[in-house]
Amino acid sequence: MDPTHQAGRTGQAERGSRRTGGEPDRAGDPRRALPKVDSLLAHPRLVERLGVWGRPLLTTMARRALDEARASLAGGGQPPPLDALAGAVSDALDRLTSGRVRAVVNATGVVLHTNLGRAPLSAQALEAVKAAAGYSTVEFDLTTGERGKRGSTVSALLRELTGAEAALAVNNAAAALMLILGAFARDREVIVSRGELVEIGGEFRIPSILEAAGANLVEVGATNRTHLADYASAIGKRTALILVVHPSNYRIEGFTAQPALADLVELAGAHRLPLVHDLGSGLLRGRLGDEPALDESLSAGVDLAVFSGDKLFGGPQAGLVVGRGELVARLARHPIARAVRIDKLTLAALEATLLTHLSGRPDDLPVLRMLAVPLDELRRRAERLATGLGERAKVREGTGVVGGGSLPTERLPSVVVEITPLGLTETAVVSGLRAADPPVIVRTERGRVLVDLRTVPPEQDDLVLRSLQEIMSAR
Ligand SMILES: *Cc1c(COP(=O)(O)O)cnc(C)c1O
């Protein structure tokens, strides 16, 4: 809010109030008893906040509270006490600022918690972000002293890591898809299986992304079964590409069929069409439920593979595209690429994450470390926590989920501390934990509070214990 604008409004309100006073000013008009902005700001409740948030913001808030009080006094009544006015200013400030991004302790056990920022960054990535935040070599070549190319190291590292011919990093995976569709499929057709027209979250639906990019969707097959022949018969003169999307967050089970990726690659190749594979999560190799692994996608021969820089890749949110050199080069030159380019902080975090993957120390990435934490270790930590909480806590086996729209049906065996809040509702405990500093986020189940330490860095175990003890002894 612009304080000058506010000041103007206050002026008007004051003139207005004199006018609406109409009859001669009565000395008893309660509006005249309202304090001046400066006296309100001198209230003990606001003095400290003035130090934190500064005069312009608090002045705006104080003027607004006084305006409101003045308006409600227009019909007569008693002016609110100074304490109440200061309280109103303070509450308004809380409403404005309490939603800002703050660090929390994630004790839900959901490793890729969509609402808690998905992947936490590694120590190396954090360090890199800090270094990049000031002046840094984002587009500067230290060897020649000339202009460098943003993202060239990320591309080189991605090529090393994946063995792909070329690579490009943009803001997020949705942006990467927009770029690919906008560059290759504008006013042309894109073939997608009916079982893959997924909503990834919020506004991200595959059909809407296609539409927004100006591509025409050609749906093939049925929700549960799509065959190679369905794709083959949909190919025509206006076909731009075949898009294969991993339905990250849901599963179709039972009577299902989907052609092998390699067969689709062959079909696309025979028609000189690119095959684009949106993997969602960046699982590099190996098995994790039925997440597609990047190495398998590339060895099946897809032309472009798209995946997230966070999720299972364990880095910052980014959209990573790897594949055929000629296609990636066209993407990099496209105007949409400039609109969705990654900023220097993401770039730095991504470089560090890629180097960690390349170093063969995946345990340095919190996401991979947390997914792989041994149950014995979890049990030991859970028992310490339960001991500190006494009779109301017990340790039991539980199941977690990976989260972040990955592995929806995969259960992650875990060990949880189950707390029966004696004399308190579980809601009171949960909201008490949210109000702690730092806030602690937990799950509940049938009146019990569940703490899963899988997602808590061990050095924060004590902090979780203390927050719980404080809330439960305060009743
Ligand atoms: C998560 C996901 C995306 C979107 O990734 P963002 O980085 O959040 O944009 C796209 N496609 C699939 C299949 C996904 O699972």
Properties at a glance:
single chain, 475 residues, alpha/beta, Aspartate Aminotransferase, domain 1, Aspartate Aminotransferase, domain 2, 7-stranded mixed beta sheet, 19 helices, 15 strands, disordered N terminus, binds pyridoxal-5'-phosphate, SelA_trans, transferase, selenium, SelA_trans_N_dom
Estimated helix fraction: 40-55%
CATH architecture of the largest domain: 3-Layer(aba) Sandwich
- The CATH superfamily label of the largest domain reads Type I PLP-dependent aspartate aminotransferase-like (Major domain)
Helical segment count: 19
Averaged pLDDT: 91
Briefly note the CATH topology name of the largest domain: Aspartate Aminotransferase, domain 2
What spatial order of strands do you see in the largest sheet? 2-10-9-8-7-3-6
Rg, rounded, reads 29 Å
Largest sheet: 7 strands, mixed
CATH class term of the largest domain: Alpha Beta
**Number of separate domains:** 3
Shape: globular
Could you walk me through the main structural features you see in this protein, from its secondary elements to its overall organization?
With 475 residues, the chain is an alpha/beta fold. Helix 17 runs parallel beside helix 19. Mean pLDDT is 91; it is low at 1-25. It contains 19 helices and 15 strands. It has helices spanning 3-21, 37-41, 44-53, 55-73, 82-97, 123-133, 152-162, 173-184, 206-212, 228-234, 261-270, 294-300, 325-333, 335-339, 344-358, 366-372, 375-389, 426-435, 461-473; strands at 105-106, 166-170, 189-193, 199-201, 204-205, 216-220, 239-245, 275-280, 304-308, 319-323, 393-400, 412-419, 440-441, 443-445, 448-451. The protein is globular. A seven-stranded mixed β-sheet has the order 2-10-9-8-7-3-6, with helices on both faces. A four-stranded antiparallel β-sheet has the order 11-12-15-14. A two-stranded parallel ribbon has the order 1-13. The longest helix has 19 residues, at 3-21. It starts with a helix and ends with a helix. 44% of the residues lie in helices and 15% in strands. Strand 4 and strand 5 (204-205) form a beta hairpin. It folds into three domains: 34-97; 105-112 and 368-473, Alpha-Beta Complex (Aspartate Aminotransferase, domain 1); 121-364, Type I PLP-dependent aspartate aminotransferase-like (Major domain) (Aspartate Aminotransferase, domain 2, 3-Layer(aba) Sandwich). It binds pyridoxal-5'-phosphate (PLP). Pyridoxal-5'-phosphate (PLP) binds at residues 172-174, 200, 245-246, 248, 278, 280, 308, 317, 319, 405. Residues 172-174, 200, 245-246, 248, 278, 280, 308, 317, 319, 405 line the site of pyridoxal-5'-phosphate (PLP).
